[in-house]
Batch of 4 targets.
Target 1
Amino acid sequence: MLNLGEYQEVTIMFGDVPNFYNIVMSCKPQQIIKLLNELFVKLDRLIDKHSAFKVETIDDTYVAVGGIPEQTDNHCEILCDAALGMIFETRSIIDPVTGKPLQIRLGINSGPVVAGVIGKKMPRYCLFGDTMNTASRMGSHGVPGKIHCSKASFEFVS
C-alpha cells in the first residue's frame, strides 16, 4: 500500500540515456519502443530485486525511490546497489546508432519528500520536494556509465 504524506529519509534515483535524442532522430518509432522496453524491463527487475519502488518513466528517464512504501534505514544502499546493477545491465543492450553498448547516466540524492496520489482520471503516485529536484540535477549532470551521488547520499553509505 502506498502511503500519503511526508517521509523524512528516502533516496531518489534518476537515470537516463545520455544520447537518447540522437537515437530518436536516427531510429524508427518501433525501434525506440523496443529499446526502451528492453531497458526498462531490465531496470524494473533490478528495482524489484532490491525492494525499491519505481516512481515513473518519462521518455528515457527512469525514476525510483528507496524507503517508500516500506521505510527502511538502508534506503540509500538499496538504490546504490540497484544503480550499480543498472550500469552493467544497460551495457548488455546495443545502442542502435553507435553499435556500442548503451550507457545510462544515474543521479542519487537522499532526504525528505512529500508523497501522494495525484489526479482522478489517471491517478499517479508522485513525490515532491528539493530531494527530488536535486536527484534530477544529479542525474542530468552526471557522466554516462557512472553514478553521480550527492553529499547527502554519500553520508548515508559512508
Target 2
Amino acid sequence: MKDWPLFAFNQDFQLFGAQHWVVLVAMVSASLGLPWIARHGLNPRQQLRLSRIMAVLISFAALAYPFLMMWLGVFDYRTDLPLDVCNLTALLLPFVMWRPTLRMHEILYFWVLGGTLQAIVTPHLFNGFPNFIFLKYWIVHAGLVVYVIYATVVFELRPTLRSLRRSFLALQGYVLFILIVNLLIGANYVYVLSKPPTASALDYLGPWPWYLLVAEGVALLLFGMAYLPFTLLRRQKVSTE
C-alpha cells in the first residue's frame, strides 16, 4: 500500500508547470463559481452546509498529514506539525467558522489573503500529483482562499479598518506563541529563529532578527492590499448616494 502513487514520494512538481497552472485555474474558477452558485441557487441553510463541508475537508487535510507521515515512518515533529499560519488556520477552521461571524472571519480573511500569496505563487513543494503531500498542500492553501472568498461574498462578512488592526494584533499573538513553541521543541516554524536553508523571499529582507521586522511591514502592506477592495466599494457607495 505504501508503494501506491498516492504515498510514493516524487519530484514531479514544477513551478508554473502544468500541474501548478491546473491548480491555479481551478482555484480561481472555484473562487468565482462557488459563491455565484450559492448566491443564486442555494437557500441559506444549503449555503451554510456547503461552508461547513469545505471547512471540514480543509481541516481534515491539515490533520491527516502528520498521521500519514507517521505511518510512512518519516514524521519529524520539528517540521511536520500543523503549526504554520495556513495549516493552523485550516485545522481550526470548522471550529471558528461553524457559525460564521465577522469577528472570526475578519482574522481569517486577512491571514489567508495576506499570508498565502507566496505559498500559492511560489510554493515550497516538490511532490506532484497524485502524491498526498501535493494534494494536502493545495487543499489547504487553495482551499482556504476559496473558502474565504465564499464566506465573504455569501455571508456578506465584510471586514472594516478595525478588522485589519485586530487581525494584525492577532498575528503578533500568533508569532509570540510560535516563538515559544519553537524554543520549547527546538523547531523553527514560520522561520522566526532563522531563515530557511533554501532560497526564499526572506533573503531580500535582511539578516536575522531584522528580517522579522521587515516581514511585519510586508504583512501590514499585504493586509492593506487585501482591504483595498472594501475601501473602493465603500467610496463607490458614498459617491452614488
Target 3
Amino acid sequence: MVYSPIDNTIASAMAVASETFNNSKVPFYVSADSMVKDGGLATYGIDYTVLGKETAKMVAQALGGADVSTMAVVKMSDMNIYVNTKTADAIGVQIPQDILDKATVLE
C-alpha cells in the first residue's frame, strides 16, 4: 500500500504513478478527488472545487476592503469518500458495499 499526500509533483505524474502501482497490484491511496479520478484507489477528504469557491469568497471580501486580520477561519467540514472502482477491479481489491454506498465513485 502506498499513500501520497497532496503534492503537485505527484498529481502531475498520476498517469505514470497509477499505472505503475496498478500493474504491481499495489493499492495507491491519494489525497485529492482528482487524483482518484486519475487512477488512485481512494481518498477521504474535501472537495477541492468547494474549497476553491470558499477561497474565492474570502478573496472577494479582502479585495472589497475587509480587514483580513479579523476574518474568521473557515474549516472545510464536508468530508467525502472517493473511490475509483476501475482501479479497484484492476488490482483485485473489493470495496465493501457499505463504503460504496457512502462514496462518490470516480472512474
Target 4
Amino acid sequence: PFAALLGIARADLAEAAKLLGERVVLTEVVSYQDLASMISSGQITGPRTVVILSYALCGFTHVASIAIFVGGTAALAPSRRDDLARLGFRALLAATLATLMTGCVAGMFSDGSGVLMGKP
C-alpha cells in the first residue's frame, strides 16, 4: 500500500513495493542495486517511478540500524537499554515515513521526464 500512496504508476507497483520492503529489512544499498538492475532489464519503466524511488529509498532506516542505534546508545546508558529498544522501532517507523514523504514530494515535482525541476 505504501508504494501506491507514493504515487507510483500501477504498472510498477509490485516492483516498487519489493524495493521499499527490501530497504527496510536489508539496506538501501541492496535496494539501489536492485533498482538499477530493474531499470536496465525493463521491469520498471516509468521515469516518474524512478524519481520517486530514488528519493524514497534513501536514508539510513533499516532493521540493522536499530541494532546500531540501540547498541551504541546503550553503551552510554546501559540501564536504559529496554527504553532504547522500544524507541528504536518507533524511530525506524518515523524515519521510514520521512523518507517515503521525501519520495512523495519528489513525485509532486516530477513531470515524468525523469528530471526534477530542470533540464538534464
